[in-house]
Amino acid sequence: MSAVAASAAVMVPTPRPAVDDADAVPVLPVLFVPEASQWLSTSSGRIAGDGYSWMQAVHWVAGSGLYQPRRYRSHGPRSFGPTTVRVAQELAQLFPCRPGIEYLMRRTGLAERAVEYHLGMLREAGLLAWIVKGTRVSGGPALASEFARMIPVEFDAALGIRTVQRDEDAPAYTRVVSGIAEAGRELMAKLAKKAARKVRTPRSKTSSKAPAKASVRGAEQGVVTAVSDEVRCTPMQVCTSASSTAGTTSLPPESKLASGVSKFPTPKKSNAKAGGRRKLNVVGRRFQLARELTQELDWLRGCAVPRIAWVARGVADAGWTVTDVKGWLHLRGEAARVRRGSGLLAVLLAGAETVLDTPAKRAAAVEQWRGAQEAARRHRIQQVRARTERYESDWDAPSSRAVQREVEAAFAKVREAANGGRHQDQGDVADDQALEAELSEQELAQLRADAWGQFMAGETDLVMTAVNVMGPAAAERIYGAELVHRARQIASGSRSSLMTYGRR
């Protein structure tokens, strides 16, 4: 029996005397969730707020003994033990919880079938619920499943946890904790200590014959191996083993043992983080920044990560992030056409760590880059809105020149009738001539320069507005016949399904 299963009597509260107490904790039945209820939409549990609180529920299920996998299948693990807790510990660190089978195999050292067994046990215990079920398409990559870390209702009932639904329209699995009974506080404290500890895969116990065989090989190779667990030798005690394959153990002199305390070298502290990952060194930070750059910058897609790490070694050693690099590239300027991404990056990053040598300067560059991104986003929204209003109106102008002349003649007759028989074209020509007389040569040249600038950027609004309001003849007198002709060609072609234009 494992140590986790041995504490089942402690994990399940015993029945209390029948009193009128709202905080009384009941004894729970067998814990099992059928396959139809293993989805988030059909689950009766609630979503765990974080991985720490979820691990408390995992340790409670492991120690309570309410879930036994062999009750429902004849194969697989026999109990919800430390290996299942080890798998759950890896899932608690993922956000979102999208673990791949290969990832869990690499992290836990288990086989593929074993990982699938333990994931199924977590779902049957009500600790996991499917959000998206992964698929495997022939010839394509396997898609990982996405899970929601759940806390079963049996856990809330056992510890007397009270929950509340803050939003009445939200699903039932979004309820949150509002309190806990006094009877469950002590147990919750024990679960908190278990959740704070990291469970590791237990080592297999070797027999007494294994060290003897290993010691023979060690003696041949000139290394020192440990003796069996039954007979131990320490510097404070004489070994009573009949055979010693590792040689005699040298005892310290009596002068060093006069105080009764032996001096042993203190073990070195591990430089690993709490999550099980080591702190990145200089090379690791370079490769991390290079990988993020190849993912974030489009013109670096496909570049070798080691080459980018070598190019960006200066800024990586200075503590730059991918956001800082984007801010610097905005200040330096990016090329529209890139032939070799690594070479361009080397040119753009030359001397960057010396110019932006403080975090304040890098933060200012990032803020400027984000402001430019926001301005570009608003400009695109305005362009799309103007294009939509222009081309999705109730009436579209005809593309044929003959039809356009007939439409203009019809509008001229309507204007003439509306003005009491006076020919509107004469009035329009007089107005256009008056407008041209008011404009000086400098202003007229400025108007033509602005119209040409917009035309080179792909916009014809200024010219087409003059054409639609004053007519083609007046527009040609102001902007020139060539510009009006080109603008009308683009405007007529934009309404055709055979032509697409725009800016990249």
What would you say this structure looks like, in words?
The structure is a single chain. This protein is mainly alpha-helical. It has 3 domains: about 5-195, no CATH class; about 280-365; about 400-495, no CATH class. The protein is built from 22 helices and 5 strands. The protein has helices at about 5, 10, 50-65, 80-90, 100-110, 110-125, 155-160, 185-195, 210-220, 280-295, 305-310, 315, 320-330, 340-350, 350-355, 360-390, 400-420, 425-440, 440-455, 460-470, 470-480, 480-495; strands at about 45, 130, 145-150, 160-165, 175-180. Strands 1-3-2 form a 3-stranded antiparallel sheet. Strands 4-5 form a two-stranded antiparallel sheet. Helix 21 crosses helix 22. The protein is elongated, with a radius of gyration of 38 Å. The two termini are about 65 Å apart.
